[in-house]
Design a protein that fits this description.
The protein is mainly alpha-helical. The chain has one domain. It contains eight helices and three strands; from the N terminus they run αααβββααααα. It has a three-stranded mixed sheet. Strand 2 and strand 3 form a beta hairpin. The protein starts with a helix and ends with a helix.
Length: 243
């Protein structure tokens, strides 16, 4: 991995290397925190005795959501809501768990289904960006790399392709930034419904849910921060190449 960053003509640039390492560190810290927080509250039950799947169904009902299926998926913390399939997919620990962690994560994903049902604009915008973002995340590097090589050969196409590559990467950054309000709002909805329905009935349970969801939110903020740092480094490199 280190040799790749040292000798690759794109990532070997000092600014990009520093931005990548800082972003990687932030992401690892956020991931470690969410995993440790989930495992900590996975051992703390809730008085309601609900499983994550039952809590998700209750949150959906309370939010007026219909026609959404709740499915068990594979993987640790692989939980997500699929707007296209109208499906909540919960990992085994969340689907079957009866803990604060299970309830919190399941309710958060159910919060996305409420967003979908109420036409929450940021969710719709993010969903519409998925195809473009997938293309941008897969293509930006190769476009930028070709631009770097052409720049070394003093071709006029070099700077143009580098700018296009940065533009494609910027789409990925916009997607990640737009993810932040979507995730924060889903957690807000989850906390409100859990409290109003009595699924979470004590201050200790509410505090635990908040800690789990806040730790999860950090992963999205860390990912966005890492991408923004990389984008700034790419912009600086393009600016230097044009001088």
């Amino acid at each position: 991995m280190l040799s790749y960053y040292l000798f690759d003509p794109v990532t070997a640039h000092p600014l990009f290397l520093i931005a990548t390492l800082v972003g990687f560190g932030l992401s690892m810290l956020a991931q470690a925190r969410v995993k440790s927080t989930f495992r900590r509250f996975a051992n703390v039950g809730v008085r309601s005795g609900m499983t994550g799947a039952e809590a998700a169904a209750a949150v959906c009902r309370a939010g007026g959501v219909t026609g959404v299926t709740i499915e068990r998926s594979q993987g640790f913390l692989s939980d997500h809501y699929d707007p296209g399939a109208k499906a909540l997919r919960l990992s085994p620990d969340v689907y079957d768990g009866r803990s604060i962690s299970s309830i919190a994560v399941a309710a958060h994903e159910a919060g996305h289904s409420i967003q979908d049902a109420t036409d929450y604009a940021p969710l719709g915008f993010r969903s519409a960006m998925v195809p473009v973002t997938k293309f941008g995340s897969g293509a930006w590097y190769f476009v930028f790399l070709i631009g770097v090589f052409l720049q070394y050969s003093e071709s006029f196409l070099g700077p143009a392709l580098m700018q296009i590559g940065v533009g494609l990467f910027a789409l990925v950054v916009v997607f990640q930034v737009m993810t932040l309000p979507v995730e924060v709002d889903a957690s807000r909805r989850a906390k409100a419904v859990l409290a109003s329905t009595g699924i979470v009935s004590t201050e200790e349970e509410a505090a635990g849910v908040a800690k789990v969801l806040d730790a999860a939110a950090l992963t999205y903020f860390a990912a966005a921060a890492a991408s923004i740092l990389q984008l700034l480094a790419l912009l600086a490199r393009v600016s230097n190449s044009n001088r």
